[in-house]
UniProtKB/TrEMBL annotation:
SMART domains, per the entry: CBS (SM00116)
Annotated CDD domains: CBS_pair_HRP1_like (cd04622)
Domain CBS: 7-64, 71-130
Entry keywords, A to Z: CBS domain
Protein's UniProt name: CBS domain-containing protein
Lineage top rank: taxon: Bacteria
PROSITE patterns: CBS
Pfam families: CBS
């Protein structure tokens, strides 16, 4: 099974010049803690609720600060045509729960989460991945 078969396609995307307050409000309204940041169709990075809290709020950033200042650049990505195991292995090794999904041309086409994968792979693999992701680094 391929990542495109389980990924979320209806993805909220932030733009580099969005403010951290705007992005945080969208996260709160949508009840999610991760949002890819794209300039057009090109992925620039990703920002999490933790990034906003630790990198922005904790350092005294104004609510009007641009999200581009606090995002994780070089976001880990998987391709839509990768096997599910590729995403699980990457999530485990890098201790992340969500990954942007890109097409063969590098355009953002979705997001895959550990939850998406856990419904489609053997329980053993999802459990092992969660254990690795949750392990203190």
């Amino acid at each position: 099974m391929k990542i495109r078969d389980v990924m979320s396609k209806d993805v909220q995307v932030a733009r580099p010049n969005d403010t951290i307050q705007e992005v945080a409000a969208r996260m709160a309204a949508g009840d999610f803690g991760f949002i890819p940041v794209a300039d057009g169709e090109n992925l620039v990075g990703a920002v999490t609720d933790r990034d906003i809290t630790v990198r922005a709020v904790a350092t005294g950033a104004a609510p009007t600060a641009r999200v581009v200042e606090f995002l994780s650049r070089d976001a880990l990505v998987v391709r839509a045509d990768d096997d599910l195991k590729v995403a699980l292995d990457l999530m485990s090794s890098r201790q992340v729960r969500r990954l942007p999904v890109v097409d063969k041309d590098g355009r953002l086409v979705g997001v895959v989460s550990l939850g998406d994968l856990s419904t489609r792979v053997k329980e053993k693999y999802a459990g092992e991945a969660l254990e690795e992701i949750s392990r203190p680094s």
